[in-house]
Specification:
Organism: Shewanella decolorationis S12
Largest sheet: 6 strands, antiparallel
Protein name: Cytoplasmic protein
CATH topology: Yope Regulator, Chain: A
Mean pLDDT: 96
InterPro entries: DUF2170
Shape: globular
Number of strands: 6
Pfam families: DUF2170
Strand content: 25-35%
Structural class: alpha+beta
Distance between the termini: 40 Å
Low-confidence stretches: none
Radius of gyration: 15 Å
Length: about 140
């Protein structure tokens, strides 16, 4: 599995996606190969996919530390912990000063499983932003 194979597959799905979503994918050059996956209609929250030696990692950036209402930061963390279990296939993390939602898959995952993970992660991002808006500036 590599990001170019994944990009070709997702871009070629068009209206034949099992999830009902269309995908628009762009490889990003760098030290680590990354695929930017835009769910059509949700381009403002792309999913970034990388393939390592032991997993496929899917990450969406939510907001930066500078966007958090500092007076409610502890409450935000509590809410994130409470949401972690009922949020299917996804979990919260922080990368530098950015809050993210991520999911990981096995290298043996099928294209359909990867497509489903991308769709669920995108859905989860929208739900998280709705739930967390009170903690942001």
């Amino acid at each position: 599995m590599n990001i170019h194979t994944l990009a070709n597959h997702l871009n070629s799905l068009g209206n034949n996606s099992q999830t009902g979503f269309q995908f628009d994918c762009y490889p990003i050059d760098g030290e680590v190969e990354v695929l930017q996956v835009n769910v059509v209609g949700r381009e403002e929250i792309p999913v970034f996919v990388s393939v390592t030696d032991n997993q496929i990692l899917c990450i969406s950036y939510l907001w930066g530390e500078n966007e958090v209402n500092q007076e409610r930061r502890s409450e935000m963390f509590e809410t994130m912990l409470e949401l972690n279990i009922p949020m299917p296939l996804s979990a919260f993390a922080k990368i530098d000063d950015k809050y993210v939602v991520y999911g990981a898959l096995s290298l043996q995952s099928s294209m359909l499983e990867i497509e489903q993970e991308l769709a669920v992660l995108s859905d989860n991002c929208l739900e998280v932003i709705d739930e967390m808006v009170d903690y942001l500036k």
